[in-house]
């Protein structure tokens, strides 16, 4: 782990670029770090959207992790194929996905599936589907505690919705789901205070539910930035995702978090069109393009400035013209790993600086068999 060139390949000649390299030793260390932080592995519910791969799911299961979170039906199906015990689809099903979710439950009888709702219409729709299929569907109320993306505010309307869910003959009230991805202060003390403040109304809602003599709701909370705080709450399941592969975006924002970059892009210099300019074969199609520059952190190219990108190309200003040559191999950590992984059919697996395998990114599509 201390090797400055842990990322480089001894024989890169046969590896196409761009490719996404992953390092199982580092992934395992990140898994171990998550477990050591939470203390009780039963309170971990990692998100699979970052890597969408059965091998990494299997590594976690071998480490005792059996609860997972996902964002799509194919990701949920992948977890079913892996025989995961408990899967939360953290995306309220709408349109055809409501029936697809029911088919998922029916296909994988040994996996417990649940999903999110934030309104009475969806509760009633899923209740009708459950009745028609003679099953019970497990649901979590999706809580909006300040991100304003999805969910319902933790107020009296949420209390009424939870009561209606609990009273429905064909639905099971699992608890409250709280994603606070908007809390990203780089100062961990301030970020923790922000997290606690945003979480207080959730605890009040939980207490109000308990006063109705309804079984105490479980809580799934947070993502990677707030994982260090939610993982200490004894009655909360923490659900980080980026922690498995990490990236330069979170690495820069949260340097105090002890996770290792475990996914690296291999790229080559495609052209040197003019003095001080390098062009790499790393365009929009190969890396998440939604972030401002820099979109990658070069591990072996100092003093460079990323200035433009198109579908196949990344253009970089560089002030040392004596080193780079056309065809030279370079390595970089993505700024945002989750949508970057989704651009690749396979992950190129590296151990001891050599390629040992290729892992399919199975759940990168919107439809598999369901």
From TrEMBL:
It holds the Pfam family D-ser_dehydrat. Residues 262-351 form the D-serine dehydratase-like domain. Transmembrane segments: none annotated. Keywords: Lyase. Signal peptide: none annotated. Belongs to the DSD1 family. This is D-serine deaminase, pyridoxal phosphate-dependent. It comes from Maribacter sedimenticola.
């Amino acid at each position: 782990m201390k090797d400055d060139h842990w990322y480089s390949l001894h024989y890169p000649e046969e590896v196409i670029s761009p490719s996404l390299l992953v390092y199982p030793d580092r992934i395992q260390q990140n898994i171990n770090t998550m477990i050591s932080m939470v203390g009780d592995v039963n309170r971990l519910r990692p998100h699979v959207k970052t890597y969408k791969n059965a091998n990494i799911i299997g590594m976690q299961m071998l480490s005792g992790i059996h609860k997972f979170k996902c964002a799509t039906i194919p990701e949920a199906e992948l977890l079913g194929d892996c025989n995961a015990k408990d899967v939360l689809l953290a995306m309220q099903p709408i349109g055809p996905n409501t029936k697809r979710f029911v088919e998922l439950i029916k296909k994988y009888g040994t996996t417990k599936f649940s999903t999110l709702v934030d309104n009475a219409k969806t509760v009633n729709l899923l209740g009708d589907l459950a009745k028609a299929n003679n099953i019970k569907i497990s649901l979590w109320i999706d809580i909006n505690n300040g991100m304003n993306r999805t969910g319902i505010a933790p107020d009296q309307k949420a209390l009424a919705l939870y009561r209606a869910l609990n009273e429905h003959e064909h639905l099971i009230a699992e608890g409250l789901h709280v994603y606070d991805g908007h809390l990203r202060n780089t100062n961990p003390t301030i970020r923790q205070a922000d997290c606690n403040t945003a979480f207080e109304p959730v605890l009040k809602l939980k207490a109000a539910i308990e006063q109705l003599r309804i079984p105490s709701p479980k809580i799934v909370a947070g993502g990677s930035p707030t994982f260090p705080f939610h993982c200490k709450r004894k009655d909360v399941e923490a659900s980080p995702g980026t922690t498995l592969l990490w990236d330069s975006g979170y690495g820069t924002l949260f340097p105090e978090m002890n996770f290792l970059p475990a996914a690296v892009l291999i790229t080559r210099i495609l052209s040197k069109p003019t003095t001080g300019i390098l062009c790499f074969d790393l365009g929009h199609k190969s890396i998440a393009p939604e972030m401002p520059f820099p979109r990658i952190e070069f591990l072996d190219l100092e003093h460079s400035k990323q200035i433009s990108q198109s579908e196949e190309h990344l253009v970089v200003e560089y002030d040392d013209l004596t080193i780079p040559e056309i065809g030279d191999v370079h390595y970089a950590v993505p700024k945002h790993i989750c949508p970057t992984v989704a651009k690749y059919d396979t992950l190129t697996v590296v151990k001891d600086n050599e390629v040992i395998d290729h892992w399919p990114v199975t759940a990168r599509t919107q439809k598999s068999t369901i």
